[in-house]
Amino acid sequence: MKFNKYLPKERQEMLEKQYKEYIKNTPMTKKEQRAVREWVKDGYSVYENPSGAWHEGQIPVEFLSVYRDEEYIRQHTKGMNPEETRKFALKYYGWSEEVELPLQCGESDLEFDFQIDENEELPFQ
């Protein structure tokens, strides 16, 4: 495998070993295999992904999983405008269009009641 010339030899060896084992044990199409190979040649592990996606437990999502998701979305959004594509992707991932932030504290938790005695010695005075 021909890697980026600036990639350290040890990293190249590790990535190539991972790649060979991964393609031997993971069913994929020729197109997917080429995509994984190009990803690895660029210096990335098959266990990393370009979007920084992680499973629960802080385990990175494999490149091929993200690639398959992106390909599925690309195939099903051909001819759609950007807004339709965005809505399709949100629905695909199970996200709503509204920002949903969990309520972790009450309004009273956001108020600060600092009272400093004018005679109190403060650091950085």
Written description of the protein model:
The chain has 125 residues and is mainly α. Helix content is 44%, strand content 3%. The model has no long low-confidence stretch (mean pLDDT 85). Strands 1-2 form a two-stranded antiparallel ribbon. Helix 1 runs antiparallel to helix 2 (30-41) and helix 2 (30-41) crosses helix 3. It has helices at residues 9-25, 30-41, 63-76, 82-93, and strands spanning 54-55, 59-60. Strand 1 (54-55) and strand 2 form a beta hairpin.
Return the structural class. Answer: mainly alpha
Q: How many H/I helical runs?
A: 4
- As a whole number of angstroms, the C-alpha radius of gyration is 24 Å
Q: What portion of residues belong to β-strands?
A: under 5%
- Total DSSP E strands: 2
Largest sheet: 2 strands, antiparallel
Described by the principal axes of the CA atoms, the overall outline is flat
**CA distance, first residue to last residue:** 63 Å
Q: What order do the helices and strands follow?
A: HHEEHH
Mean pLDDT comes to 85
